């Protein structure tokens, strides 16, 4: 039997594509739109999955993976339980960071900014577009709280399913967040660890400043 591979010895050469200032969009939202659509077209696993990083009032950071549900010039949107750990941390510190990692395309997008709740109308519209079991699940799961076992979730789902039947309303503790970007970074893996890395930050007169960062 061969010895196990050391984690420190794992290597990969990044050679799929490049990212330069001339070929990239002047607007980071357009660049993000292009890359996300390319990830979807390439059928990478969960192209809409993103890591959300928040920081608690005591300065302790935490991350989790959620699914992007919308994006436009106003920002990046996802939906969750407002009473969850991330919800509590955003209430104390409304700044967050997002990261998309499309491994097969050797690409990473990082986005930072202020987070605010979306309107009740937006949250209602998205909630009612979800499958019934997902709508019941929003009531059944006391997200981030300690529970005695999975049976708690099953019992809650049965209780709320019987209560609301086919028309569960949106829970008051559930809805959307929108991150308003003030810092975008696009990373494209390159050979010899000389990766391409572009950062976009707002300019005082409008538009975005696009700069290359050392990898």
General description of the model:
This protein is of the alpha+beta class and 215 residues long. The chain has one domain: Electron Transport, Fmn-binding Protein, Chain A (Pnp Oxidase, Chain A), CATH 2.30.110.10. The chain is 26% helix and 33% strand. The chain has five helices and nine strands; from the N terminus they run αββββαββαααβββ. Strand 1 and strand 2 form a beta hairpin. Helix 4 crosses helix 5. The longest helix is centred in the last third of the chain and has 15 residues.
- Can you name the CATH architecture? Roll
Q: How many helix segments?
A: 5
The main β sheet shows up as:
9 strands, antiparallel
Mean pLDDT metric: 94
- Class derived from helix and strand content: alpha+beta
Q: What's the helical proportion of residues?
A: 25-40%
- Going by CATH, what is the homologous superfamily? Electron Transport, Fmn-binding Protein, Chain A
How far apart the termini lie comes to 38 Å
| Fold-level CATH name | Pnp Oxidase, Chain A
Dominant shape = globular
Order of helices and strands: HEEEEHEEHHHEEE
Rg over CA atoms: 20 Å
**DSSP strand count:** 9
What is the CATH domain class? Mainly Beta
Number of domains as seen in the coordinates: 1
The proportion of residues in beta strands is 25-35%
Spans where pLDDT lies below 50 across 5 or more residues? none
